[in-house]
Amino acid sequence: MKGRRLTSLVWILIFTIIQVSAAKKSYIVYLGSHQHGSDATPEDYQRAKNSHYKFLESYVGSEGKARDAIIYSYTKKINGFAATLEEKDAEDIAKHPAVVSVFPETIYKLQTTRSWSFLDMDVPENRGSIPTQANIGRNVIIATLDTGVWPESKSFSDEGMGPIPSKWRGFCDNSTKFGVPCNNKLIGAQFFNKGLLASNLEEDDVNSARDTEGHGTHTLSTAAGAFVPGATSFGYANGTARGGAPGAHVAAYKVCQSRGCSGVDILAGFDTALHDNVDIISVSLSAGPAYFGGTNFLDNEIALGSLHAAAMGITVVCSAGNDGPDTMTVGNVAPWVITVGASTIDRDFPSYVKLGNEKLIKGASQAMTSLPQNQMYTVINGSDAAAPGVYTYLAASCNTSSLDPEKVKGKIVVCIDNMEMPRILMGMTVKDAGGAGMILINNAYWGDSTVSDPHVLPATMISYRDGATLYSYMKSTKNPLANISPKTTKIGVQAPSMAYFSSRGPSYPTPEILKPDVTAPGVDILAAFTEFISPTGIVEDERRTPFYLLSGTSMSCPHVSGLVGQLKSVHPDWSFSAIKSALMTTATIKDNRYIPMRDHSGAEATPLAYGNGHIRPNRAAHPGLVYDNTIENYLSFLCTLGYTSANLSGLINKAFVCPSEPMKLENLNYPSISVRALNKSTVVTRTLKNVGPPGTYKVRVKAPSGVAVSVRPPSLSFSKVGDERSFTVALTSQIKNENESGFKFGRLVWTNEIHQVSSSIAVNVVA
């Protein structure tokens, strides 16, 4: 009895501790910007930190408690702090007149070569391309907020690099056991993990900016990696690896570990990168759809950090997220960032299944071994080969130790991708049980898409639809046979098409802003990788490779970051909004067969998937006209969402007054047009700035189905660079039947003899 009573007391104690700890969590208290400028001293930063201690002291009872509670003081460009607080304290702090916003931290996820040739950017073969004009990104500094960097990669060699820009204020943290050395290419590397530690999400990662995951090395080299001949991923995609701006300097801010990315750490990374004077910040992270992780922009770490970047003229590029293909899944939807979806390139890794009835089924694979092609193998369903005592549904997805070796030895095993079991691990299960090969069938949700993985045995992945064909054959014979063809790389396939995983619009908080903005290569992208772990992330996999093929909007995002670097070299006087406009208005909605871009299902893709279209770098250098914006335009946008003049003046450290008549959100001078709900009619206004030779542009409109569109005036004349002209677009619903309501899409193009300035139109028609 005494032992039971003691056990009960222990559980009561544990439960009490859990309750106490659950009552506190990490919050960010945002106060705007600091008064000190770019010439701030260490004393200024300490003074800011002390003010945060003093501020919090009045809520938690003492300066000692305030110091213990504060995780970070943001002292450089962003004014605020992150602290472990009780909910009641957070609510009280939010009422203080000096506070702009208080919000709990968000945990973000990572959104995980030939792509540059596909974009027509091979330097020797295209002398009119951006690289020639921009001297491949010289004097530009591109930063990533990610998992750090593997400095030994050849992609970060400084051979041929110029000197480090004099404005640079950062450094490489080489003081730890796993430190990162700098050179003239890799000029910055710092790590931030206090937020993740406070959230108890940190594992046994190293306290260093060194990349132990591979994601950050991949994204940084995609944006600005040096030329590396002979790069390959396990024998696939052999060629020269390079980044979008190979002449640019790079800096890695490690804000993510193996368990995720704390918003508290991300904001610290932003604050430091802005202080260090980077030119572009690439953020291949997402908290998921925009209804997660804040909906008012100033309660979201990435939106907040990027707004401060915008105020300093720094471009921030973000991934759209990997939560597609459902609509309203797009993340990172702030209008001052470039939000990038993912699409395919014209390279494929086909691997065919040959059935006993001579039929061929196309699959995808990067398997390192192949079967002899002079024989056929018996095919067995994983569910029919369950080990004794194992549920058949576990064997169907080839779960670890789920297969009976006596049933699968020497056979090809059919496994179903259940979206939970790692695909590589499925192959390991088959191999460990003595299987000869694996056919992996996609699930119903992902449908007709396939993924090429570096399997440890002969294997290929086929679509859900083709899986039905395979099952039909297997049922038609008592002895189903098959073989899997060896690995191949095919160039010149039809592309781009939208990746199935790429998050789709409309934007949840503000459907008046079409998101994503553009799409870029994001499927099977070859780039540098860490040699700390296997690229599969599986402990049992001992393979290492200096380059690896990855897919995700994490991969498409740095493509655009690299292009922004090149555009900034060509046009150093352009604003970040002008650069964004140039990328968007020169994008295409057709593939390399000159037909409308397709979705992953084969249907025609829409602007909810690709935004304004697929990037065309060389055209972006000469857009003709741009839709420009100032930071004040974005602040007026925030005024409409309910923020006050006092809130927003603190952000830019100068007087700002919200317009007496709130801005109509559709009237933000955006390069695309989106209408939240069109019942009868509405009018939107846009302004174009000339950045090219004088000329007259005429409008051409492809109206959305069931919507009448009128543009006034129908032509615009510009006499010099910097001239601005405004126009209106009237949209009128002609739909009477409720069954015809929903999103309709069109295109508006201003054109002269040289340029086409294109904008997608997305209208949600309500009857």
TrEMBL record:
Sample GO molecular function, one term: serine-type endopeptidase activity
Give the UniProt record's GO annotations in the biological process aspect.
proteolysis
What keywords does the record list, in alphabetical order? Hydrolase, Protease, Serine protease, Signal
**Record-annotated active site:** D146 (charge relay system), H215 (charge relay system), S554 (charge relay system)
Supply the Gene3D superfamilies for this chain. Answer: 2.60.40.2310, 3.50.30.30, Peptidase S8 propeptide/proteinase inhibitor I9, Peptidase S8/S53 domain
Residues forming the PA domain are 394-470
UniProt domain Peptidase S8/S53: residue ranges: 137-613
The record ties this protein, via InterPro entries, to:
PA_domain (IPR003137), Peptidase_S8/S53_dom (IPR000209), Peptidase_S8/S53_dom_sf (IPR036852), Peptidase_S8_Ser-AS (IPR023828), Peptidase_S8_subtilisin-rel (IPR015500), Peptidases_S8_3 (IPR034197), S8pro/Inhibitor_I9 (IPR010259), S8pro/Inhibitor_I9_sf (IPR037045)
Q: Please report the stretch or stretches of sequence annotated as the Inhibitor I9 domain.
A: 26-111
Origin: domain of life: Eukaryota
Domain Subtilisin-like protease fibronectin type-III: start-end pairs: 667-763
Q: Which residues form the signal peptide?
A: 1-22
Q: Which family does it belong to?
A: Belongs to the peptidase S8 family.
* Name recorded for this polypeptide: Subtilisin-like protease
Please name the source species.
Rhynchospora pubera
